[in-house]
Amino acid sequence: MNVAQEIVDEYEAVIGLEVHAQLLTKSKAFSSDKNEYGSLPNSNTNPISLGHPGTLPVLNEKSAEYAVKLGLACKADIREHNEFARKNYFYADLPKGYQITQDTTPICTGGIISIKTDAGGIKDVGLTRIHIEEDSGKSNHDLSPFDTMIDLNRAGVPLLEIVSEPDMRTAEEAYAYLTEVRKLVRYLEICDGNMEEGSLRCDANVSVRKRGAEEFGTRVEVKNLNSIRNVKRAIEFEIIRHIDIIEKGGEILKSTLTFNAATGETSIMRTKEEADDYRYFPEPDLQPLLIKQEYIDGIAATMPPLPNELFAKYTEECGLSEYDAGVLTDDKTFALYFEELLKLKSNPKSAANWMMGEVKGYINDKAIDVADFPIEPTRLAELIDMVDSGRLGQSLAAQQLFPLLVNHPESTATELAESHNLVQVGDESELQSWIKASIDKFPDKVEEYRGGKKGILGLFMGEVMRLSGGKADPKKTNQLIREALEE
Length: 487
Ligand code: ADP
Ligand code: MG
What we know:
With 487 residues, this protein is α+β, with helices and mostly antiparallel strands. The protein has 16 helices and 17 strands. The protein folds into two domains: 5-295, no CATH class; 428-485, Orthogonal Bundle (Arc Repressor Mutant, subunit A).
């Protein structure tokens, strides 16, 4: 497919995403079976998960708690009277013949996810609903050449389905949205956000329309995308495919597609005529779930800091760039370490530089998480303060004291700086002796300086730094050399 760019530019895409997030509960949504990824196949499968006659589901309260957490984080409305519904269909990995979900009473409605756009602004993507449901089992088509292998460990795992409004207009916006959703569920610790393992799955709804048109075009739905990049690729492919069909006078069929990551192309699984009728009806085995305001208030009181709140604080109050704030808030443990430095009154800009420089460099190098970073925030805050107050030179701090602290996390920055003789020298008589030595060493350069070659000052600075082992206070030294040369 090849459509000229000027034709593509006449169109605008409309995108809405449906995201399924597997919840990090210990047991399943309606039974005491373990909710655990990677267990021996079909080992977490008691009669309730399998829907044997006579068994009764019981709601895992954590699923509701996590839904409320996400709802609060997205500023959604949380429903008081919740009912569960049966969604009926036949499939080999659904032994019950139905899935328990929420149909007409989703636990959350409305709310927003804020994304950062390429233009540098913030855009609010609306949410239609968030509801609780249970996962199906997993059909593995690639473990045996002739058979499909069914693993029912996943059957009954709690999910939140997060449905967005058709508010996104580019594949990049969809990418940014999904990145935000993943960051948010990780901050809330309700889902590990691991798309490769299927903990977070995405269906993308895509349509195109002529720019300026009000009505939406016919949408298609690309199912089960397993990485954020593939969501973007699938949408990009669909946009061009739609435009190509429309330009050739064809019509878009409302259909469901799959994406082939190897070829970067989609293919149609089924069209509207074959659409399922799920015959939803109220789940007779579960009581309605009532969510009282005091329950919501209790959860609100335990909410962790949210990434967009921290981002706003860093850019607006701390004066950091959007780029820096983005890097700092990308990962929760990293952001919380930075928060500790702020609490310890570190200068925000210096602390941000240390986090994004030495700390990030170290944890990337060792492939560890900030949680395993050996230096306590109090120790690092002290080091940062020593540099900011001029007691320690920046390069000595980064190249010598920081590695010392990593290896001796039980010592303080001051102790190590003193025992390794790194403390900056600001004492004038000591500085003067190094300055005198450097001037005596290069008498001809002194003449050049006096003849107008002011840049030569750097040579004397370098010599003093060498003589002092990097410890001379650069500001004072600069001043004193200048005075000595201009005598
Ligand atoms: P279904 O149950 O058929 O998947 P939903 O009402 O749950 O339908 O909507 C699915 C998604 O489709 C939502 O995210 C919505 O924003 C999106 N959507 C609806 N209309 C369009 C459209 N014309 N183009 C793109 N996305 C759309
Ligand atoms: Mg759908």
